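Methods — Computational structure assignment.
A single polypeptide chain was analysed. Its primary sequence is given first, followed by the predicted tertiary structure written as structure tokens.
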Amino acid sequence: MSKKKLVVLTGAGISAESGIKTFRDADGLWEGHDVMEVASYDGWLKNKALVLDFYNQRRRQLKEVKPNKGHLVLAELEKEFEVHIITQNVDNLHEQAGSTKVLHLHGELLKVRGDSHSAKYILEWTDDLLIGDIDADGHQLRPHIVWFGEMVPALEEAVSVTQQADYLAVIGTSLQVYPAAGLMHYANPSVPVFYIDPRPASINNLQNPLEVIARNATEGVPILKQKLSELK
């Protein structure tokens, strides 16, 4: 018998518990920077060195943190379910925990690409990225991150995966960032939705059965695991 498909949408909250800093809980500043300075193409054109330094710091920080219990239990669920994780996070903590099907909506911190519209060169990159680091066509390399105002290349695949879900979990997101926040509405209306967040947002116009688990990921994902085992 084939495994039921569990689709999990994760946001900044699950990474925050591992020590990855987020800017949406505070005043719109990220490490002292206006987010548009370091997370928009206009910001990149204005000051490439600043943007590169910002993501170099994020890359260094990623080497110092580990997956938390939320990440680890999601990976364990692959024993019982076909688990697809669709994440807004650019870290690789899901992969470190052992999850095998991870789709990054907003790019990946440990990858870079040429600063051109074709972006045909996507490279693994674990160290600092500097002015003068170029791709095979001579384009300056930039972080492989989807900045504000840019298209989300993985969105079509994310919609397709969500449409096939037997169960849907939404973890650690304020549901403020679109198009990611709208993904759950693509699930079949009969699919149970579990929303795990210590400060859950209101979800409007959702036809699905909804259960809110008002906990952080490290506490809430084990509860999710228990509830899913009861549904099988």
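Note: The helical segments are 12-16, 35-38, 41-46, 48-62, 69-76, 93-97, 155-163, 217-231.
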